Amino acid sequence: NDFLLLMPAFKNGEVVGYASCTSHLVDLGGLGMGPEGADIYDEGLLIPPCRLAEDGDPNALLMDVIRANSREPIGNEGDIYALIACCEAGVNRLTAMMDEFGIDDLQDLSRYIVETSRRGTIQAIAEVPNGSYHNMMRVDGYENELELHATLTVTDTAMHVDFSGTSGYSKKGINVPLNYATAYTVFGLRCIVGSDIPNNAGSLGPFTVDGPPGCILNAQHPAPVAMRHTLGQVTPDLVLGCLHQAMPEAVPAEGASCMFDLPMRHAPEVAREGGRRFAIEPVHNGGTGARPQADGLSATAYPSGVFGSQVEITESVAPVIIWRRELRSDSGGAGKYRGGLGQSIELSSANGASFIVFLSVERLKFPPLGRMGGLSGAVGRIRFRDDDSEIPGKGELRVTAGDYLIFETPGGGGFGPPTDRDPGALRLDVRRGLVSPDGAKNDYGVNL
Known about the structure:
Blueprint: E1 2-11, E2 14-24, E3 53-54, E4 57-58, H1 60-68, H2 73-101, H3 107-126, E5 131-139, E6 146-154, E7 159-162, H4 178-190, H5 201-204, E8 207-210, H6 229-232, H7 235-246, E9 260-261, E10 264-266, H8 268-272, E11 279-280, E12 283-284, H9 311-317, E13 320-327, E14 343-349, E15 355-360, E16 381-384, E17 394-399, E18 405-408, H10 423-432, H11 437-444
Parallel strand pairs: 7-8
Antiparallel strand pairs: 1-2, 3-4, 5-6, 6-7, 9-12, 10-11, 10-15, 13-14, 14-18, 15-17, 16-18
């Protein structure tokens, strides 16, 4: 459902740069926003690069095609115009900056920024001990559990990551194209190495990523990839497990990693019977791993940075009631610095009509690990209120009238031994309900 726009910026009749943005649209057809597709053609409308507008006029035929292939044509059209407005804002700010400083083109400035960033990044890499560092993570997968492998090779001037040993591709849409895996892998490394240097070709160039074609982190066309974020967003924790071996005091603990993305849609019979149609994709995040000098962040998306969806907005655009949304006590891994907490969300149908949830989440089996003696965070969990049976994290789930569905997102791992936690910080955690008295006793050895 990603839709990418690119808009040129002109000055004196010449192209001086581009503004670009990307976003999910509400619905682009196919089986829906879930991992059920057998190949990429099941996953919705594919649009090759083409003109969306020319001289300010939208491409009417293209817009007709997009509307005709969507369950939510009006919402899609609104999203597209919002993306156009975003690009226009970027173009206008760029040309205004050039006018302010009397610049006719960006060539000299771009070369300076890229080269300065490249030199700064190489200096940062030189501070990391040379060597080869390997890490393996077990993840839930879909049909079966999977192994993700990464080997980080550090030289004086570069870092290379190799995914050899990683499990093969899935028959479901959790496969990850290499460009996506590369983006998140390099982002994870750059959060530690040269984090104050801007993202551009100069700062990204010293980092390279590869993997065997056909492994789940290097999916080949036409493998299904709709929910590529599910494992793609685990790659920062995967590669940081390598970097931890070289810089043990600098790398945070593992976190929830992928978003608890919960696409929902009306059930097919609701549309046939003239009921309320809707498609929505609320996001609810788990906790990040504790940092070397601070607690993890609760209900915060890392590495995606996507804000959690607001209850009021969800309820205003979909026939869904969210009865409860609260932090999960004791879900953050214990440590000198505590992992960020996950959250609990309870929801149901607002009008008695059934709806479908397209699940593709991780960390229901394997918890986010702590570092330097910190404990693991809590695993996630999905269940109905009246049935304590655990629901798998991937697949289509029907919610009917009277069902109350509960999502519990994972907590982040802790950093450092729990016995080293500041007593005042632990007392404050207990007072705020972030850690229970039992949790303080069992995990920290303190009676409160």
